[in-house]
């Protein structure tokens, strides 16, 4: 995918093409999501996705920002019942067709929710960077005949509310903002020196609920997945992941669990990967990454037939909390989906906004109208603590 560099942007087709001096100057690898090993692991294990990488530079050719680009096929069938009206409007106006996928160019991390797709070097004019990114994306597509013909839409994801005064610059490039399911965040109280301290902070009703979940899941063993035993667990983990993915409201991409092999080899204990075992059978798995003072939960797998009886998913949520407390972390990002049950363990929503643009002007105007109807799935926020955080 050839693209000529500009005065403000350099383009690369793979992580391996990016010179070491660029990584050294950006100093972005303290954030695991912008570490070469993390990005390369995803790139290596998803051959069905076209990857590209944009490095923005200043007038002295010094790197100012980095953006991960993925080109994916988005299928209408991946949208569940909550998006029926989008399907209807999409068919009516030809935005999304049943017969062929939408070719979507994404700036951001397809497999992680949150601001993990654009890294901006310190002391930069962030609004200027956003505008240069939008121009660089246009250049990437418009100078490549194949991309120009094939790309249907552009998506830049995910931004928290505090960033919108910067990212709303994208509106000037005809991008349409819309809210998506929020990240669910749990702030770890500094007084929680143990999981018992966490339970003690809860109202009686929620503490009883937690203890019931532990009682139901008492026969489940939680085992660490390592580079040595991952081959044993991977087939069943993949099967369980498929079931969870099938229940998701929509998927931008299908995660290849073979990536976990690289994560465990390259990232070691920074990457959390565990299986839940009942009667020698894997009935669930949980994954996540520790970055700075935060534990981000990633993909999970659940045996839904056993979930209610053995409280598998609840046990996972509590185990994430156990890990965070034991490692003296400050926050857990439980990610999107299942917001209500996550709020019952103390998580609160963090709004996320994406920006979408269709390449056809008239279609993009229609898109803007029905994106205004897109709202996160409502849920009943629970307040489990005696003194709410």
Automatic annotation (TrEMBL):
Any one GO MF annotation of this record: transferase activity
One Pfam family of this chain: FemAB_like
Signal peptide from the UniProt entry: none
UniProt keyword terms in alphabetical order: Transferase
Protein name from the UniProt record: GNAT family N-acetyltransferase
Record organism: Polaribacter aestuariivivens
């Amino acid at each position: 995918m050839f693209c000529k560099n500009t005065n403000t942007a350099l383009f690369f087709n793979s992580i391996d093409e990016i010179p070491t001096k660029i990584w050294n100057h950006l100093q972005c690898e303290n954030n695991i999501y912008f570490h070469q090993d993390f990005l390369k692991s995803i790139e290596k294990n998803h051959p069905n996705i076209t990857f590209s990488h944009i490095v923005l530079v200043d007038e002295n050719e010094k790197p100012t920002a980095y953006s991960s680009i993925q080109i994916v096929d988005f299928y209408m069938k991946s949208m569940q019942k909550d998006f029926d009206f989008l399907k209807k409007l999409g068919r009516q106006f030809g935005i999304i067709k049943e017969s062929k996928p939408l070719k979507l160019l994404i700036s951001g991390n397809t497999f992680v929710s949150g601001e993990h797709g654009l890294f901006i070097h310190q002391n930069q004019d962030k609004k200027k960077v956003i505008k240069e990114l939008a121009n660089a994306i246009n250049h990437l597509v418009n100078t490549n005949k194949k991309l120009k013909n094939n790309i249907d839409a552009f998506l830049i994801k995910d931004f928290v509310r505090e960033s919108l005064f910067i990212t709303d610059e994208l509106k000037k490039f005809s991008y349409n903002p819309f809210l998506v399911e929020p990240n669910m965040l749990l702030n770890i109280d500094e007084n929680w020196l143990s999981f018992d301290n966490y339970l003690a902070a809860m109202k009686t009703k929620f503490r009883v609920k937690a203890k019931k979940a532990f009682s139901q899941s008492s026969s489940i063993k939680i085992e660490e997945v390592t580079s040595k035993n991952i081959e044993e667990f991977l087939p069943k983990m993949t099967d369980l992941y498929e079931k969870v993915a099938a229940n998701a409201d929509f998927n931008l991409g299908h995660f290849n669990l073979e990536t976990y092999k690289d994560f465990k080899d390259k990232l070691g204990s920074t990457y959390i990967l565990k299986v839940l075992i009942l009667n020698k059978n894997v009935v669930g798995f949980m994954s996540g990454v520790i970055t700075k003072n935060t534990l981000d939960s990633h993909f999970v797998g659940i045996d839904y037939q056993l979930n209610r009886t053995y409280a598998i998913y609840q046990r996972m949520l509590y185990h994430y909390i156990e890990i965070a407390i034991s490692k003296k972390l400050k926050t857990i990002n439980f990610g999107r989906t299942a917001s209500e049950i996550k709020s019952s363990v103390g998580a609160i929503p963090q709004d996320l906004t994406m920006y979408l643009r269709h390449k056809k002007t008239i279609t993009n105007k229609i898109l803007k109208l029905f994106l205004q109807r897109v709202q996160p799935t409502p849920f009943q926020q629970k307040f489990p603590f005696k003194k709410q955080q």
